[in-house]
Amino acid sequence: MKPTKNKIFCVSCKRPKMLFESQAKADNFIPYNKEDTEVLR
């Protein structure tokens, strides 16, 4: 299940971002949702 309440809009990069309580929670989110996330390089 995806978190929905932790999205904010970043004015600097002009796109929505997700906030996490810790680095571990953010790292845990990536393997299960990498099809839906966009990676900028």
Brief summary:
By secondary structure, this protein is an alpha+beta fold. It has one helix at 23-33, and strands at 7-10, 15-18.
Termini, distance in Å? 27 Å
- Shape designation: globular
User: Strands of the biggest beta sheet: in what spatial order?
Assistant: 1-2
Low-confidence stretches: none
Proportion of β residues? 15-25%
Order of helices and strands: EEH
Can you walk through the features of this model?
0% of the residues are buried. This protein has one helix at residues 23-33; strands at residues 7-10, 15-18. It is α+β, with helices and mostly antiparallel strands. It has 1 helix and 2 strands; from the N terminus they run ββα. It is 27% helix and 20% strand.
Which features would summarize this protein structure in a list?
41 residues, alpha+beta, two-stranded antiparallel sheet, 20% strand
How is the topology of this model organized?
Layout: E1 7-10, E2 15-18, H1 23-33
Antiparallel strand pairs: 1-2
